[in-house]
Amino acid sequence: MSVLAPTLPDAPGAPPPAWALRLGYAGLIPFVTGALLVWVVNAEAHPYVTLGLAAYGATIVSFLGGIHWGVAFREALPDPRLFIWGVIPTFGAWVGVMMPPSAGLVVLGLMLLACYAVDRRLYPLHGLERWLTLRFRLSGVASLCCFIAAGGT
Fold first, then answer.
1. Left (φ > 0), alpha (ψ -120 to 50) or beta: where does 127 sit?
2. Which of 99, 112, 114, 135 is the most exposed place for a label (fewest CB within 10 A)?
3. What is the pLDDT of residues 22-78, one digit of tens each?
């Protein structure tokens, strides 16, 4: 199948593909590593670790907002709220990166949870509910890592 071939709607009740699960869980590696490193590196390396974690967290938050644009693109008459919400996480992520890590990582953790809360309502409306378990797990671990790292700053 071509990479550019049209995709079929999600099959109700079907689990996400195994490769998507592996990629999703692999995406937690920088969160877990960053949260751990905040607590173990010396003071000289600390700003680099917190910036790295905040930058990665902001990238993921922005990515989660972008999903809403993708969902809207699938519709003949997209709901403008999908586009509006799609940019809000990016603004929140930017604020989180610009703040001192002790506060910015908390903002990023809260943004990850807010994105999940919105997706919890949106995904079933668009036939994407099979992704919610993965989204819950990934958002939970990623936000927890941000909170743990903020506590170590």
1. left
2. 99
3. 999 999 999 999 999 999 999 999 999 999 999 999 999 999 999 999 999 999 999
